[in-house]
Amino acid sequence: MDTIQALIIAILQGATELFPVSSLGHAVVLPALLHWGINQRSPEFLPFLVMLHLGTATALLAYFWRDWWAITTGVLGIGDAHEVSESRRVFVLVVIATIPAVVMGFFLEKYVRGLFGSPVIAASFLIVNGLLLMFGERLRGRGTADRHLSSLSRMDAFTIGCWQCTALIPGISRSGATIVGGLLRGINHEGSAHFSFLIATPIILGATVLEIPKLMHEQVPHGVLLLSGIAAVVAGITALLSTAFLMRYFRQHDSWALNPFAYYCVVAGAISLGVLFLV
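^ that's the sequence the OP posted. Answer follows.
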């Protein structure tokens, strides 16, 4: 993997981790389309992957620092009674929403990704992801989705957490699935996206922490570490800009916000399948 490839993958990670278009699906499909021949299971790719996730998680922490500061102080009992109570309620909701993905990921992640991690399957599920976004938007349009994040219940959080499990399949977007889950529970786009990005932080950090023990047993060349560090910064900046854009976008386009991403996934998946079958 050369520097240009590393920077392209970093930008791709920073954007698609948050845009509802599947970072894993793009990571599987794009190198195959460009004939890069990158072995994502090689020891040299591990530090790169860890640093990309660290950069993305740092960006989310930076953007939502007020939320995490309120949650932390609330858990510690700092502040007035109402603030502590509300912060602890949000903390419990984040934990509840995180549990399904942690459990499913622990038992099924390697099996599911090994089974579905081919470029053809990932491109196919990009189309499925687009249809899922359309499905969520259409069903949401038939009902009411004007609840705010403050009204989120424990059942809402658990349901959204279950939707998050679908992102174990390459091509299905974690943010897209959780936003659809929020919409179907009656939460508006902005609130669904806000909660989706909040619960992304422990998931991404958890995935990073799980890879660190493996990284400690690898002899990583200095050049790989340097390139991984640069890529992490690029991914972090991209993720920060993506988050800021998406939060404003979902706030301003509440009636049809997922549709452009749905159309993109269907078209990108179909074109990718066509190219993969022709070459």
